[in-house]
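The pair is quoted verbatim below.
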Amino acid sequence: MPAPVSVGESRYYRISGLRVQSDIPLYGSIEDDGSEDADVYIRLGSVPAVLDGAVLIGPNWQSASPSFLVEVPGVVRFLVTSGTEILVEPVAGVALDDAAIFIIGTAIAIALYQRGGLVLHASAVAFNGNVFAFSGASGAGKSTLAALLCLHGGCEIVSDDVSALDLGGDIPVLQADGRRFRLWEDVIDWMEVADHRRKAVRSQIHKFHVELPAQRAETVLPLRAIYILEALPEGADPIIELLPAGKAAVVLDHQRYRRLLANQINDISQRFALMAQLVDRVPVYVFRRSVAVADNPRSVACLKAHWESLV
């Protein structure tokens, strides 16, 4: 068992392809040895309520390049600068774990956008050396489907909810994030994985970190396909349809993680240049399936058969 550490003592992680040095524990993230210089530093400190020189202001955010200020009311305020620094100030009395989940998600995503990256609201798994990502509206079942594939489909965990893409190489890759799945209590019950349930994601909700026995994929693997999830009635046969590139670009643009914040950071030409690169190199499908528990085996089998056809 590791020795306890105090708040303010540095921890080291790898999150969405970034080496992170943090003053606060980031539960569920891949730990790193800190042997290399960090890409992003997360510090506890005083964060201003008003960002000097803000040229863009929203309901809970302010932008003054190279800094971006976000407030989660009643929880935390953080300032992300130049894609390299995140200054964090939790509201008095708020547990660090309640604040940390927003740092792992929103703040890291902002840092990635400031670095010129592309981040999808998606979960992903690896199978036979390829990565397959699942995107869609909140509640579409991204995490649940990925967890099912890891439990019953022989897949490895790649990412959950936040998926950072790297289009700079010969082959597009989705950065291995390896964080634990975050599943609602009723999903944990019907999946019969209560033994793998860990801490609550936040103290106010019934959603938990789940550490499945499936191995975490921590190597760089090619992104083979992206699936947009849509629901069908119970008992319906699952359907997979290829989206034309133009439509795929529009659909995926709406699936960027924290899209409205991202729009304030990256200009439209940059966004669409990245999206055009992505859909030109990675096929995008609509995956329609019933989300009823009894229909899950057919969904898993349908995907596995489709993956075989892509080889």
